[in-house]
Design a protein that fits this description.
The chain is of the alpha/beta class. 40% of the residues lie in helices and 18% in strands. The protein has 9 helices and 8 strands. A 6-stranded parallel beta sheet has the order 2-5-1-6-7-8, sandwiched between helices. Strands 3-4 form a two-stranded parallel sheet. It is globular and about 45 Å long. Bound molecules: adenosine-5'-diphosphate and magnesium ion.
């Protein structure tokens, strides 16, 4: 058993937070020392005093985690953009990868398992020198890629896989999220097509829910559809 996983995606809005929360919830059913982390977050809104990042709020709530956001989300910028761009526009200091890694190491030591949610996709710039993929490499975690079955996904998924392979990052598999209730033949075929092309396993196919709420029921439903072993 490894002691963590990094959840990345082909894009923003694909379902990283939902999938991360569902996996964390599942693990927390058998282990009370599960942690979640969102090292870099940006948004047009501050969610609350305790959780600047709404993603962090949703992740923490899924497992009732009581850890300070200064560890769980060391970098938050109030501008929906990549962390580096947000920091430049806001004339703030860009994130330090060393600092973020220190927080990550602290959490990894303290907990039995950590689920880290990325931001956007793997080539999102953190600062002048580092993109998300470089941060993933430094954590030494393996990754799960969240994708959708929509048109355009093959290109984004293959690019993500290629980039991670270049960095020798172990890929656990791909989760296809937001499969429509009545998918067309292209959408239906996309997961197995990508699996066949890349030999990376599809860990699950999650439907597009009409009414989605971040509740234990939802997390159970989703995690039951995912073949993931730590
Ligand atoms: N399977 C799904 N069915 C319906 N809505 C979804 C599903 N997955 C995600 N969403 C919604 O899509 C949006 C983006 O999901 P989120 O998990 O926040 O993506 P990311 O973390 O990759 O930006 C959210 O509003 C979320 O509630
Ligand atoms: Mg998110």
């Amino acid at each position: 058993m490894s002691n963590g996983v990094f959840v990345t995606a082909t894009d923003t809005g694909v379902g990283k937070t939902l999938i991360s929360a569902s996996l964390a919830w599942k693990l927390s059913q058998h282990d009370d020392k599960i942690c979640v982390m969102k090292p870099f977050a940006t948004s047009d809104k501050v969610f609350s005093k305790k959780f600047y990042s709404k993603d962090l709020y949703l992740l923490s709530k899924s497992i009732n985690l009581t850890e300070d956001q200064s560890y769980l989300n060391p970098y938050f910028y109030k501008l929906p953009a990549s962390p580096y761009m947000a920091s430049k526009i806001l004339k703030a200091k860009p994130p330090s990868v060393t600092e973020a890694l220190k927080k990550f190491s602290y959490l990894k030591r303290k907990y039995n398992f950590i689920i880290v949610e990325g931001i956007g996709g793997v080539m999102v710039p953190i600062n002048q020198k580092y993109n998300i993929v470089d941060f993933i490499k430094l954590t030494r975690l393996s990754i799960i890629i969240v994708a959708t079955p929509m048109i355009g996904t093959i290109n984004h998924t293959l690019l993500t896989i290629q980039k991670c392979k270049e960095h020798n990052i172990p890929i656990k598999g791909i989760i296809f999220n937001k499969m429509p209730e009545k998918p067309n033949i292209v959408m239906r075929s996309t997961p197995s097509f990508i699996e066949q092309l890349t030999k990376i396993p599809v860990l699950g196919i999650i439907p597009h829910y009409k009414y989605l709420r971040f509740t234990a029921n939802t997390f159970k439903n989703i995690s039951d559809k995912i073949k993931y072993t730590t």
